[in-house]
Amino acid sequence: MTSLATAPEHGPVTGGIDVRGITKRFPGVVANKDVDITIRPGTVHALIGENGAGKSTLMKILYGVQKPDEGTIAVDGTTVSFSSPTDAIKVGIGMVFQHFMLADNLTVLENVALGAEKLFGIGDAARAEIVRISDAYGFGLDPDELVEHLGVGQRQRVEILKVLYRGARIIILDEPTAVLVPQEVDALFDNLRELRASGHTILFISHKLDEILDIADDITVMRRGTTVGEADPKTATKRQLAELMVGSELPSPETEESTVTDVVLLDLDHVNLVDARGRHLLRDIDLTIHKGEVLGIAGVEGNGQAELVETIMGMRKGTGTITLADRPMTDWGTRARREAGIGFIPEDRHRHGLLLDAPLWENRVLGHQTRRPADKHGLIDRAASKADTQRIVEDYDVRTPSINTHARALSGGNQQKLIVGREMSGDPVLLIAAHPTRGVDVGAQADIWDHIKRARRLGLGVLLISADLDELIGLSDRIQVILRGEIVGEFDPQDVTPQDLGSAMTGGKDTA
Ligand SMILES: Nc1ncnc2c1ncn2[C@@H]1O[C@H](COP(=O)(O)OP(=O)(O)OP(=O)(O)O)[C@@H](O)[C@H]1O
């Protein structure tokens, strides 16, 4: 196989896809219904739509992970049929998933070349090819660097390089900017423009309408499993896109009047966390949240925010003291912390938030089994749990065939809505929200923002961790920046821009 990264700069542009009449059914749901899309070769094509609209299913079909029940796919006019991603790669389709799949303890070269040794081996030829691709598209990657030393933006470039190395001329990206700060988004878009200029076709899913208008040549809107329209990024507005997607106006996280009191709810004093190799994951964290206050934490992914949350939740043990409403909770386990009224929206919903192979109503009980409505004299009250799950499904607009459906069968955004609904239930006093709107559509985002604002009005304290800087600025009363496990700055959301925050988050460098 020739590497299609070597596609001639001025040769015929290839990589067009025609999707016709694609239908994919799951039990109780038609995920894709008679989908037609034309993806022009050499363009950046955005796919947008509300949660559960069928975007991921369509991408998985194009990448050979799912098989359609009906319909055809043609690449450059030739009908294709995929049984696995290997078949998709053979015709030049590669996909970069939202969760990176790199081995931290291996080099860039090893991550890229392992599993594809038959192309360029694992030695100098592979190294040369990586350098060639990296130079051609301005990736700036060193093949011998260990992946654990790379920032999030660089890791993403390794993933893209990996698919280019395998000959992809059509690259599918699933919400590629969700974890990036503004400066990294700019760098990614420069890379994508370079790729487009050399004849690659890019297909990506995003919920961020600004970015779509910035980068896309074509936009397809999906709703309830089918394509409902195209939009022209040259003339469309964000508002029109939001209306096409969710049928309502664009929300914005507007600041509301302060409800901050001087009652301290959560207090961290000199909290340190050190890993097995003696490195500080958290260094001397002093942090206070008052009743009625939203404290925002800004940071590039991997700078200690996950460890901070896990330490507050008792999932990791550091040094220093943690107090909840004047009660020392440093020695409490996770369950005791939850029972004391901490709601927890975890960053990794698959690892900490859900039992994927259990029905929604059991997921409602998860972590809340010792409290109402689940607990009845030490036993699980199934009827009450089910009724409350039904309430969450309605209040939070979780799109599901039923409360008996397994969590795995929900779209990513709908899984998130279920977790947010569960964690906001049961009268929490403190809410730890890590990326609460990640992967949710603009309509659901507005609802979750409303729920957080209401929590604040009711006197809860909220620790909000988010990579969406507009969200942090719009919802927080104060924003602290975390870098390499340390709080390195505090900003007033009233007079800080996403660019200022992005800069503080990367220690003043433009790209991480
Ligand atoms: N493996 C599966 N089993 C059952 N149902 C599924 C499965 N995968 C997806 N679905 C259902 O198909 C529909 C479309 O889901 P899909 O993940 O494609 O939506 P999406 O547009 O990508 O949503 P999101 O923006 O929330 O990621 C949803 O109703 C979902 O519940």
Automatic annotation (TrEMBL):
Regarding the membrane, this protein is recorded as: Peripheral membrane protein
Say if the entry is tagged with keyword Cell division. Answer: no
Q: Where in the cell is it found?
A: Cell membrane
Q: Name one Pfam family in it.
A: ABC_tran
Ranges for domain ABC transporter come to 17-249, 266-509
**One GO molecular-function annotation for this sequence?**
ATP binding
Q: According to its record, what are the GO cellular component terms?
A: plasma membrane
State the UniProt keywords alphabetically. Answer: ATP-binding, Cell membrane, Membrane, Nucleotide-binding, Repeat, Translocase, Transport
PANTHER family in the cross-refs:
CARBOHYDRATE TRANSPORT ATP-BINDING PROTEIN MG119-RELATED, GALACTOFURANOSE TRANSPORTER ATP-BINDING PROTEIN YTFR
Q: What is this protein called?
A: ABC transporter ATP-binding protein
Q: Which organism is it from?
A: Nocardioides luti
